[in-house]
From TrEMBL:
Protein name according to UniProt: D-lactate dehydrogenase (cytochrome)
Record-listed E.C. numbers: 1.1.2.4
Domain FAD-binding PCMH-type: 36-213
Known cofactor(s): FAD
GO molecular function, one term: FAD binding
Lineage: Bacteria, Pseudomonadati, Pseudomonadota, Alphaproteobacteria, Rhodobacterales
Amino acid sequence: MTIAAAISELAGFLGDRLSRAERDLFGHGRPKNRAPFLPPDAVAYPETTREVARIVTACAAQGCPVIGRGMGTSPEGHSQAMRGGVCVDFSRMNRIVEVNHADMDVVVQPGLTQEILNRHLQSTGLFFPVEPGTNASLGGMAATRAGGIATVRYGSMADNVLALQAVLADGRVIRTGARARTPAAGYDLTRLLVGSEGTLGLITELTLRLCGQPEKISAAVCAFDRMRDAIDMATAAITYSIPVARLELLDSATVAAVNAYAGLSLEQKPHLLVEFHGFQQSVAEDAARFAELVDDMGGRIFRWPALAEDRAALWAIRQNAYYALLASRTGTRAVAIDLSVPLSRLRDAVEEIRAEIAASPIPGPMLGHVGVGHVQVLLLVRDQVPGEVEAASVLARHIVERALRLGGTVLGDHGLDGLSDMAAQHGPGWDVMGEIKRALDPLGILNPGKVVPLPH
């Protein structure tokens, strides 16, 4: 059994849709962040579920690893080929299969992106609410259980995938869930596959929950003198049940970087970006309550953009923050560390981390989905400067340990280098995950090295 034999068989029915060109292998092995360069041996471009099943069946017969890939936007190396093999690129499976207006759901193929779906839905009065901050594929979003800037109101992919179709490690095609909103009897296989990072099956179709486009949208930018005040404001908004649709945090270093990157003039202080969705009267009332709280917390609201294009420019600040921070320190790469803790512990966690970063040789600006207790620390590392890589490693370890100690969870770090963190978080439950993996994928061919321990 060899990878070469599997590739030879795949070439027989995929033809030029199986590539071994250097540019394809490089493009599918190049990481976006700190993950190592791990290219596959070949890249397959299927167009149907049946073709995906044939690919997996052929690879299973030869013990060849199979790695699913969407847009490759994940910075944690979820689609890196740790043991070589065949990368299944879903970019050609990008159709909208069916929009069910009355039932407010849509059936899509996994290679379709969130932005393209919402452009298609614009005239229907519906939209898909999960916004990861980049134009990711919906299959990849489901496989990584993505959240984003609207999670505080609409939830993550775990809350918005109603059903799916997947190819298992032996080539079987299964359907899980249903379009009905009432839970079905039996194990929730949909939730099991959502977030499994392609280690239990390759998702080939998704049924997604849609929402009605809000009648009124209102957004604001708020500045605070201290980071703790911004976090306290976010906590208060959630505690008092103000129905924010988006609630994002930028620390002062991020604001300075965004100003320089986009030619803006925001105060160089911590900021909250907030948005409300709903009917005209309810949005006005919610925004007024939020403004009162901001005033009580010593903050200042200085922008309520009325036009859609002005709101888009406001959220472009958040979406471009990553690139602005990279540009703020030449010759750097960003080591992104996610911290997600109960909301009541977020201020303490952030203050501890900020103190530790201040004592280190590298900057670590913060931003994130503060409304759900999630911030991201971007450690800006210059590999060529002695000591910075080591300092980043220590900081990353301490951030993860702090999250677990405060009752939080491991998020992005469960890609290539976070398996020890998974063990620390889940304890014996991680062993159960391994047992599920071995039951569904006894050869360990589906995205090996992710989520559960590598088989010997």
